[in-house]
Amino acid sequence: MDGSNWLMTSHPYLYALYGILAAGLFEETARFLIFKYLSARQTLQNRDAIGYGLGHGGIELLLLGVLQLLNFLLISQMIASGQTEGLSQIVIKQMESLTPLSIFLPVFERLIALAVQILLSIWVYLAVKKKRVNLYVMAIIWHALIDLPAMLYQEKILSNMLLTELILLGASLLLWFLTKRMIKKEGEKGLI
């Protein structure tokens, strides 16, 4: 009734592990299948990897970032003009407690997520193009690791939002570095 489930409440670490692995598996498998489909119809090109990452990350940025900011703006305008009828007191209190940091961090996270989606697309693109399943598996693992700080924050295992975002930034920079190394090792040019 309260939106929780047995695994979430009884074993939050196990729930976090399930959540990050499921996200990695499903998103990277979708990417893999799309690249396989494209490769059967045309020669894969670097722009396919970048385009897929921009599309995936861009729609997330739009739906999770921009729409959230618009929602904040609309509700804050309603509160400022005294039109609070129909708004719950919880929503009003949440809006009144917002700080610039609490508004900026989700936007920052969405921008990092956009970059990560491009990087993961490159891993899966090369997995298909080079017929290297290990790169696909690594994309799943990296996806899970990138999602880990947010899941730990959601499960209240991490309690500091700024620390959570800094861990995410560090993991994303490591992924960027390893992606550049992997591209060089695979003899690809023009991906990053």
TrEMBL record:
| Top-level division of the source organism's lineage | Bacteria
Q: What is the protein named?
A: YhfC family intramembrane metalloprotease
Q: Does the keyword Transmembrane helix apply?
A: yes
InterPro entries xrefs: YhfC (IPR011397)
Transmembrane segments annotated in the record for this chain? 15-38, 59-80, 100-126, 133-151, 157-179
- UniProtKB keywords: Membrane, Transmembrane, Transmembrane helix
Give the source species: Streptococcus troglodytae
